[in-house]
Structure formats: structure tokens, C-alpha cells
């Protein structure tokens, strides 16, 4: 179920949602109820594009298209036109020689790692066991691409320079997920990241960044995107996780790597006839969200601190806001109640008060039974919240959970 959980969490961007499309009428009704509550909430920390109806999404795409490209131009065919325009935009933003559009990040990263395996002569990839390929791709690196993975650390953080330098097994590529989502969207310091990359270089390994959420890392590192990307030999970025695009990803790096990646993209079935809706929505997201991300990150720190204060003042008992303060505009909240109790309380709070503090809760991947977590995202809608608003909503939520539990 891990890969399904990832899909629904990514689809909602700040917490798992009820699986859909499996013929479960009760689950479908619960999902519709949840989405309706979030759409109608007067106050919410983040409004997600997937909460909108099909008609609303089409209207938004049509309205935004003219702001990012010439809509009277021919549509793209096999990656030209607006898709090529997006690729050039990404290469410019990241300071790389080239970039290639991919329909999914899973494909982009498999292609990147496969290319590096061929170039280094070593099919072993060092990565974290909580990274996306290990937890959410059904063993694709080994089953599809013939790669082998090793784990320099199992701690809920990225590896240290010493762990890379002293790791017992050889590897050709080090993959670093920035931020490490399943550990709580955590990041190292800039100096730690530089040291880890240097340690990999000492071992003659190449470095690939899983930068699905690289966009929001700049505030934590205090560096611009080109300087961050320059540490790695290749970088993958997503267009829907932070930017609110429909789908799609890009792989950026040297011109020769990207050219080779295009060949493998075709072999993997990623040479789609037309992709203009995804490309246009990505361009809209870049224009709309990139400049706002620092304010989201700053507000997430306010929200996280106020949540902790609100829980404590309401007598919630044990809880955890992690990391505190958040490294990006996303973080985790943990409470010692079953996920169904917490999810129902969250929906009822949105329905009855117009305040949507949390979305879906999920069982903790480890620890005692009855421990649950959710992911919180702060974006434009969340900028309206004061610390007092958050504390009041947290206290109201705790009261609902206690009454229900």
C-alpha cells in the first residue's frame, strides 16, 4: 500500500487521502465529503488544485495559458513548442546546460540513475531507505532498470559526510532527496550538504538530487537554485508537488546527459505525442509560486510553533510537530490517536466551523499502535492565519478528538 499512499498524499500535497478508483463506494463517498469540506472551508492552510472540479481546472488552465505562452502558436508534437520552452526555462532556472521534460518523476529518476550506472560502470545507487524510489515505486529501480540500492544510513535524516566516506560498499551514484519527505521534509545545513557531496566525490561517485521539492529548499539553505543545483551532476524537479501543475517533471544536467536521457525516455514510453496541458500548467506554476515560496516557508514556522502552543494549552498530552521549526513550507504533526478518529475530527471541524486545520491522517509507519501523523502544507491561503488563529483552531480540534475518542 505504500505506493498508493504516496500517490494520494502527493495528490493532496499535505496529507494522505482516501484511496480512490477501486470501486469502494464508501471510500469514494468519504473522499467526496472531505474534498467538499476543504473546498467550502472559509479558512484553510493550503488550497490544492486537485480540490477543484474538472471544469474549474480547465478554466484555470485556459485563463493562465495566455500569461505564459502564445496561445495562437501550433501545439506541441513530441516535445517541441511549449514543452521545449519549458525545458529551456528549467535549465535557466537551475543553471544547467539542458533539461528534458518527463511525464513522471519516477521515469525521470530511473532514466537518470540508469544513465549514471552506464557511465560509471557501477549499477549500485546509495540512497536513503525512506527515499521515493525505495518506498513508493514498487522496486522499479531493480525490476525495470537493473539497479541495486544500498543505504549509508537508516536514521531519519540524510546521510552525513562520514557515513558516505566510511560506507563499506562501493557505489556509482549517490542520490539525495531534498527535502527527505518521509522523514518530515527534513534538510541538512548547507555546509553539511557540501560535505556530503565532497565525500561522494572522494569515492569517485556522481551525485543526483531528487529535487521534487527543490524549489522550497532555497530559504533553508540561504542559496539560489543554480548554486544548489551546481552541487549535483543531475537534478530532477517536479511540476505538481509544489508548483501546482497538472503533472510532469524535468531532469536537468549536462547537455550530453540530457541527450542520453531523451533516448531512454523514448525507450521507457515517455515520448508522448502532446503534453501541452502539463507544460502550460508548469509554466503557470513557476510564474505564480516560485517568488511566493519564501513567504510560505516563513509562515510555516509561525504555524508550526502556534500548533505546538495550541496543543499544549489545550492539554493534548503527547504530540509532536516535526521538524520544529520546519525546514520548508511542509512538516509533520503526530498525535496518539487512531487515524480514523483524527481524520473524522478534521472533516467535521471544516464542515461545522469553516476552519480546515488538517486533512487526512495516516497510521504511523513505526511505533506503538494508535499513533498517527499528518502532513501540513502552508501556501497562499495559509498566509492569512495569525498565530492566535492557529492556536484557537488547534484547541478546537483537540476538543473534538477528545470528545470523539
Major β-sheet strand ordering = 2-8-7-6-5-3-4
Secondary-structure element pattern, one letter each: HHEHHEHEHHEHEHEHHEEHHHEEHEEEH
- The helix/strand class is alpha/beta
**Low-confidence residue ranges:** 1-8, 11-21
Give the N-to-C terminal Cα separation: 26 Å
Helical content band: 40-55%
The coarse overall form would be globular
Biggest β-sheet strands, sense, barrel: 7 strands, mixed
Mean pLDDT: 93
Query: How many distinct helices?
Result: 16
Q: How would you summarize what this structure contains?
A:
The protein has helices at residues 2-12, 25-40, 54-68, 82-94, 105-120, 132-136, 140-143, 161-165, 190-202, 218-221, 225-229, 255-267, 276-289, 293-313, 339-353, 387-404; strands at residues 43-44, 98-102, 124-126, 148-150, 173-177, 206-211, 234-238, 249-253, 320-322, 330-335, 355-356, 362-363, 372-377. By secondary structure, it is α/β, with parallel strands linked by helices.
Amino acid at each position: 500500500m505504500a505506493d498508493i499512499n504516496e500517490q494520494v498524499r502527493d495528490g493532496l500535497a499535505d496529507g494522505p487521502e482516501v484511496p480512490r478508483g477501486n470501486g469502494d463506494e464508501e471510500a469514494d463517498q468519504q473522499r467526496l465529503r472531505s474534498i467538499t469540506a476543504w473546498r467550502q472551508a472559509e479558512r484553510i492552510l493550503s488550497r490544492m488544485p486537485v480540490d477543484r472540479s474538472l471544469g474549474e481546472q480547465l478554466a484555470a488552465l485556459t485563463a493562465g495559458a495566455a500569461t505564459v505562452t502564445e496561445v495562437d502558436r501550433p501545439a506541441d508534437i513530441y516535445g517541441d513548442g511549449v514543452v521545449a520552452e519549458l525545458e529551456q526555462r528549467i535549465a535557466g532556472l537551475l543553471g544547467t546546460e539542458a533539461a528534458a521534460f518527463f511525464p513522471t518523476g519516477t521515469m525521470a529518476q530511473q532514466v537518470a540513475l540508469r544513465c549514471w550506472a552506464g557511465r560509471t560502470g557501477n549499477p549500485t545507487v546509495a540512497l536513503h531507505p525512506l527515499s521515493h524510489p525505495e518506498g513508493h515505486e514498487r522496486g522499479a529501480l531493480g525490476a525495470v532498470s537493473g539497479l541495486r540500492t544500498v543505504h549509508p544510513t537508516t536514521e531519519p535524516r540524510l546521510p552525513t559526510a562520514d557515513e558516505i566516506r566510511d560506507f563499506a560498499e562501493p557505489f556509482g551514484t549517490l542520490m539525495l532527496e531534498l527535502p527527505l519527505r518521509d522523514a518530515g521534509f527534513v534538510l541538512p545545513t548547507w555546509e553539511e550538504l557540501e560535505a556530503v557531496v565532497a565525500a561522494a566525490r572522494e569515492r569517485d561517485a556522481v551525485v543526483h538530487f531528487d529535487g521534487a521539492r527543490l524549489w522550497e529548499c532555497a530559504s533553508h539553505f540561504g542559496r539560489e537554485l543554480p548554486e544548489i543545483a551546481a552541487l549535483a551532476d543531475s537534478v530532477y524537479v517536479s511540476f505538481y508537488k509544489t508548483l501546482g501543475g497538472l503533472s510532469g517533471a524535468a531532469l536537468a544536467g549536462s547537455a550530453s546527459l540530457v541527450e542520453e536521457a531523451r533516448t531512454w525516455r523514448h525507450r521507457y514510453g515517455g515520448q508522448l505525442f502532446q503534453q501541452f496541458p502539463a507544460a502550460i500548467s508548469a509554466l503557470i506554476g513557476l510564474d505564480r509560486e516560485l517568488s511566493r515560496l519564501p513567504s510560505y516557508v516563513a509562515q510555516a514556522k509561525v504555524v508550526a510553533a502556534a500548533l505546538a502552543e495550541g496543543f499544549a494549552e489545550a492539554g493534548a498530552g503527547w504530540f509532536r510537530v516535526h521538524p520544529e521549526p520546519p525546514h520548508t513550507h511542509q512538516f509533520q504533526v503526530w498525535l496518539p490517536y487512531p487515524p480514523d478518529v483524527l481524520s473524522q475530527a478534521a472533516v467535521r471541524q471544516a464542515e461545522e466551523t469553516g476552519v480546515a486545520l488538517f486533512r487526512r491522517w495516516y497510521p504511523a509507519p513505526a511505533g506503538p499502535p494508535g499513533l498517527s501523523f499528518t502532513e501540513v502544507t502552508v501556501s497562499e491561503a495559509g498566509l492569512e492565519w495569525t498565530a492566535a488563529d492557529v492556536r484557537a483552531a488547534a484547541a478546537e480540534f483537540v476538543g473534538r478528538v477528545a470528545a470523539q475518542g
